């Protein structure tokens, strides 16, 4: 390993247990459980599977960002600002809720269609951006940049950067969050193939595995570096580390995401869909929502076309 490639290690590995949520949805919650709560700037990571009859009809948000990344199936969305769309396999939606959004997210089901399966990451907004104007950004699967750091490795750069082949160089995503966040989707098809993902120094980082077995960095006396499917591996954050070494330990395909973010020096006060930095901020969010003001104008009069399905 070169001096520029100093790997982080695994400090904790937690199984994301499949849990029913609502009617017809199954969720493996990673960040956001009692074992991994408020891992700044991240609030929650859900690996969801939505069966017919389930969905997320009209609801509000304030003070956070959601990144929805589809792996199979499709979701429709619609909001009270007039935005609407459809994301399918490999597509992503990046929504900054800011001072207020009212929207619906509904699965698409039908003969021959996969049930929607994917990842949704909730990211805290820096306090100076809590009341920014809400925005949507979408990328289709073809628009998501790809990197090929090794012969049998594909990286989809959802957000941030990754190093590709010598010909590709640094591959960057056009998605620009408010606050530092990198999100890369790895598929390694050859056992023993090893790659290195850079991570900005000082950022918090974790890995979530979707299939196969993965060796993450070197082992330590207190922690194994073997991470199995549906586990969240929290990475160390030493000042000399420049990224993480990743090696397939499976005869089958290994798929996982590497997510890192710039820590925020602020309190996290969350109540349902509202995330602020104080109890007073949460009370104000509820009052604004109930009164239809300060970002929620027209929220109670608006009804989505898709939410009533």
Proportion of beta-strand residues: over 45%
What's the story with the biggest beta sheet?
7 strands, antiparallel
Mean pLDDT: 94
Provide the succession of SSEs. EEEEEEEEEEEEEEEEEEEEEEEEEEH
**Looking at the structure, what is the overall shape?**
globular
Point out poorly predicted stretches. Answer: none
Tally of strands: 26
Assembly of the depicted chains: single chain
- Briefly note the structural class of the backbone: mainly beta
Count every helix, treating DSSP H or I runs of 4 or more residues as helices. 1
N/C terminus separation = 54 Å
* Rg over C-alpha atoms, rounded to the nearest angstrom: 19 Å
| Helicity range | under 10%
Record keyword descriptors for this entry.
4% helix, seven-stranded antiparallel β-sheet, 1 helix, 26 strands, mainly beta, 309 residues
Architecture overview:
43% of the residues are buried. A hairpin with a 6-residue loop joins β15 and β16. The protein contains one helix and 26 strands. The strands form six sheets. It has a seven-stranded antiparallel sheet, with no helix packed on it. A seven-stranded antiparallel sheet has the order 2-3-4-11-6-9-12, with no helix packed on it. Strands 5-10-7-8 form a four-stranded antiparallel sheet, with no helix packed on it. It is mostly beta strands and 309 residues long.
In short:
With 309 residues, the chain is mainly β. Helices cover 4% and strands 47% of the residues. The chain contains one helix and 26 strands.
């Amino acid at each position: 390993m070169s001096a520029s490639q100093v790997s982080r290690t695994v400090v904790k590995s937690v199984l994301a247990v499949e849990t029913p949520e609502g009617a017809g949805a199954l969720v493996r919650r990673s960040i956001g459980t009692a074992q991994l709560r408020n891992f700044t700037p991240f609030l929650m990571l859900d690996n969801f599977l939505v069966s017919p009859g389930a969905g997320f009809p009209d609801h509000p948000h304030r003070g956070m960002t959601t990144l929805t990344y589809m792996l199979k199936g499709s979701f429709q969305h619609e909001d009270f600002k007039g935005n609407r769309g459809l994301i399918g396999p490999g597509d992503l939606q990046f929504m900054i809720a800011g001072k207020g959004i009212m929207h619906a997210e509904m699965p698409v089901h039908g003969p021959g269609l996969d049930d929607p399966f994917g990842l949704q990451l909730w990211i805290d907004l820096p306090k100076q951006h809590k009341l920014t104007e809400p925005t949507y950004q979408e990328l289709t699967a073809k628009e998501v940049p790809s990197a090929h750091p090794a012969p049998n490795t594909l990286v989809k750069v959802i957000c941030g950067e990754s190093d590709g082949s010598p010909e590709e160089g640094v591959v960057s995503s056009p998605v620009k969050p408010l606050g530092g966040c990198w999100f890369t989707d790895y598929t390694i098809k050859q056992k023993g193939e090893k790659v290195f993902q850079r991570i900005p120094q000082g950022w918090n980082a974790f890995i979530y595995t979707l299939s196969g077995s993965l060796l993450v960095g070197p082992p330590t006396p207190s922690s194994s570096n073997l991470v199995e499917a549906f586990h969240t591996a929290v990475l160390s954050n030493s000042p000399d580390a420049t990224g993480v070494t990743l090696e397939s330990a499976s005869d089958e395909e290994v798929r996982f995401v590497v997510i890192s973010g710039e820590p925020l020096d602020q309190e996290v006060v969350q109540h349902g869909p509202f995330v602020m930095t104080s109890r007073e901020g949460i009370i104000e969010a509820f009052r604004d929502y109930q009164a239809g003001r300060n970002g929620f104008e027209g929220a109670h009069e608006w009804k989505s076309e898709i939410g009533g399905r």
